[in-house]
Design goal:
The protein has two domains: about 450 residues, Neuraminidase, CATH 2.120.10; about 200 residues, Jelly Rolls. Helices cover about 5% and strands about 40% of the residues. It has four helices and 41 strands. An eight-stranded antiparallel β-sheet has the order 26-27-30-39-32-33-34-35, with no helix packed on it. Strands 28, 29, 31, 36, 37, 38, 40 and 41 form an eight-stranded antiparallel β-sheet that branches.
Length: about 675
């Protein structure tokens, strides 16, 4: 999996401000669901938090006496009847993780505008519902009877809720009972969250040798694609002889559960994935988005997301039964070691114009937990919006609370943020449920409604047969070779082709065609880049004026072939460039003339993971194109020399085999 990062380091004033509030990081583990230090700000802090979405925000849970009791650990789902169910832990005496805690919910009935009062879902011990006990880590999911999925002995719309329990000493109900044995459980509601059954222990998912055990804490998912459609999948983590990150699943609506993918790391390893949030990718894989819970080194090292990344990612290709490889860290994604929710909001295989996965987390790499920010991925989790680009740009995540002046101190920002969850709302908007406060992230849990325009979504442009490409800031329209064209600024501009689960370039013949106009004399200029990088299966076309050439390359599992021109064509005029593979042989055409050829290009040009095709940049964001491009096309066959000539001279649409086309005539802003 390729991760792109264009993050800039924090300015000295900002980093100094972080360190001034007491950021002290030891080379040790930070317990889950606790900060490096309680983040109550200094007593003289009086700054009021800026709330840019106050008009669409409702505070659902308030903790005025924090840390003497609080509401924490939000999760949210939409029931089958359209009701929203916003869960949280109610910590009675203190904010300790394993103290006396009940799980509660607030409901927003379908069509209503007022949330109903707080309702207890599960509390206490069997036979004594008010006995001190930990009942937390809510992980809800709504079961739907999907066409073709295995039948289950449960009604459509059952709300299944996973959680964890441990006993609490009645003499010290507010203490953190760290060594108490912890057991997962499940309960459900068959009336859209109005009433709930009794919890049932899930000892089959536990092990006596494990200590701490946590479900979620975030919504679980139901798979909708492939052989395991209908399956419920949730993430759990545990401590015991090291640290484990496990998926659990149910094929009968949550009645029975099974252990699935499991990654176990020794205590001395610097990779500790915990608090797993799951997304089903458009190709049916399960992306596991995890907190990296190891911290260590100097405060300066911890502040740098490329040195100490705090997110880890893994993938399952068999419905959560096993992991496809190891967890891997995500350099460049700026967040402290904290839970981060995720949600699929758009999918091209479901009729959407583009793919969109969201994640929410504080956006500073060290404690305290501040600047809660929603970031988008438009390429199935391979890359994410940043927090260091121009505000409101399509490269920039959305900070939902506090001033977005990144030079403001912690006190000036007054924008603490903690755990979160997200849900898709009717009509495609997003509901965000998150912890926040002006002086402490545990002060309240708020619900806010957002839409595409809030999320800094790129513009789109049409693609044959009917999909939309994404066009990021730095691309404008200009006079083209035929009609209008796209002009790339060489800094931020690029175009991402529509994602397709069946790759547009496969194992057979193909032809890639476009018009370019540019005048750069030194810097490499990526024109077209598909699927891989650094020796992975890939196809790319790049102008290399420093070497006075245009070069096309095909890399497969068996080797690589490149073809080059004898000129760079960096003369400010329009030129027609074609890369063709025919029977394993590669050819490059410029202005209708074959200028280079090479053998050894047979085989698949893509790997197992879903990867995008970009115009105007390399897959990792490098080699940004500075110039104009027009009439991009892909054919699933090798065009003849005569057809290449016809395409250049007439721009004809009558040549068979066309599988993708970007006329580049117009941009449609997000939300339109």
């Amino acid at each position: 999996m390729i991760v792109r990062s264009r993050h800039a380091h924090r300015k000295p004033r900002y980093r100094a401000a972080l360190l001034a509030v007491g950021v002290s990081v030891a080379a040790a583990l930070v317990p889950v669901q606790s900060a490096a230090a309680d983040v109550t700000a200094a007593a003289d802090v009086t700054a009021a938090a800026v709330d840019p979405f106050a008009a669409t925000t409702t505070v659902l849970y308030s903790s005025p006496n924090v840390p003497s009791g609080c509401y924490r650990i939000p999760s949210i789902v939409r029931a089958a009847d359209g009701s929203l169910l916003a869960f949280a832990e109610h910590r009675f005496h203190t904010c300790a993780d394993k103290s006396n805690i009940e799980t509660v919910v607030r409901r927003l009935p379908a069509g209503a505008t007022q949330w109903l009062p707080v309702q207890t879902v599960v509390r206490g011990e069997p036979g004594d519902p008010v006995a001190p006990a930990t009942r937390g880590n809510p992980g809800p999911v709504v079961y739907r009877r999907l066409p073709g999925a295995p039948a289950a002995g449960a009604p459509d719309g059952r709300v299944v809720l996973l959680g964890t329990h441990n006993p609490v000493d009645p003499a010290t109900p507010g203490s953190n009972h760290r060594t108490a044995p912890r057991t997962p459980y499940v309960l459900h509601s068959d009336d859209n969250g109005v009433t709930w059954g009794a919890p049932r222990p899930l000892t089959e998912l536990d092990d006596p040798s494990w200590g701490h055990y946590a479900t979620g804490p975030v919504h679980a998912i139901q798979l909708t694609r492939g052989a395991h459609a209908g399956r419920l999948v949730a993430g759990v983590n545990y401590d015991g002889g090291g640290f484990g990150a496990m998926l659990v699943y149910s094929d009968d609506a949550g009645i029975t559960w099974h252990r699935g993918a499991r990654a176990h790391y020794p205590a001395d390893r610097r990779l500790i994935p915990q608090e797993l949030s799951l997304v089903e990718l458009a190709n049916g894989d399960v992306m596991v988005w995890a907190r990296q819970n190891w911290v260590g080194g100097t405060p300066e090292e911890e502040a740098d997301p490329n040195v100490r990344p705090h997110r880890a990612v893994a993938t399952s290709k068999d419905g959560g039964a096993t992991y496809h490889g190891d967890f891997r860290l995500l350099p460049g994604f700026e967040a402290p070691n904290i839970q981060s929710s995720s949600l699929r909001l758009r999918a091209t295989d479901e009729g959407d114009a583009y793919n969109l996965i969201l994640t929410m987390a504080p956006s500073v790499n060290v404690e305290p937990r501040i600047r809660p920010t929603v970031r988008s991925s438009f390429d199935e989790g391979l890359s994410w919006q940043s927090v260091d680009t121009p505000l409101d740009a399509t490269d920039e995540g959305l900070q939902v609370y506090g001033t977005n002046d990144r030079d403001a101190t912690v006190q000036e920002c007054a924008c603490y943020g903690g755990y979160s969850d997200m849900v898709e709302l009717p009509g495609g908007d997003i509901g965000l449920l998150y912890e926040r406060g002006a002086t402490d992230y545990r002060s309240e849990i708020a619900f806010v409604r957002l839409d595409d325009r809030d999320l800094h979504t790129p513009a789109t442009t049409s693609d044959v047969p009917g999909r939309s490409a994404l066009v990021f800031d730095g691309v404008t329209t200009t006079a083209g070779r035929y009609g209008r064209a796209f002009r790339f600024d060489g800094e931020r501009g690029r175009v991402q082709l529509p994602f397709r689960t069946a790759p547009v370039l496969g194992t057979g013949d193909f032809t890639v065609s476009t018009w370019i106009r540019y005048g750069e004399t030194g810097r490499d200029q990526a024109l077209f880049w598909a699927y891989g990088i650094n020796g992975a299966p890939e196809v790319w076309l790049r102008a290399e004026p420093g070497n006075n050439r245009i070069r096309g390359t095909v890399t497969t599992g068996t080797g690589s072939a490149s073809v080059t021109s004898a000129r760079a064509y960096a003369d400010g005029a329009w030129h027609h460039v074609v890369l063709r593979r025919q029977a394993g042989n590669l050819a490059l055409f410029v202005d209708g003339v074959r200028v280079g050829a090479a053998a050894g290009a047979a085989g698949a040009v893509h790997g197992d993971d879903p990867t995008p095709i970009y115009l105007g940049q390399r897959l990792d964001g490098a080699n940004r194109f500075h110039g104009s491009m027009d009439e991009f096309r892909v054919y699933d066959r090798a065009l003849t020399t005569t057809e290449v000539f016809r395409l250049r001279t007439s721009n004809t649409a009558a040549i068979p085999g066309l599988t993708a086309r970007l006329p580049m005539n117009a941009l449609v802003p997000a939300g339109k």
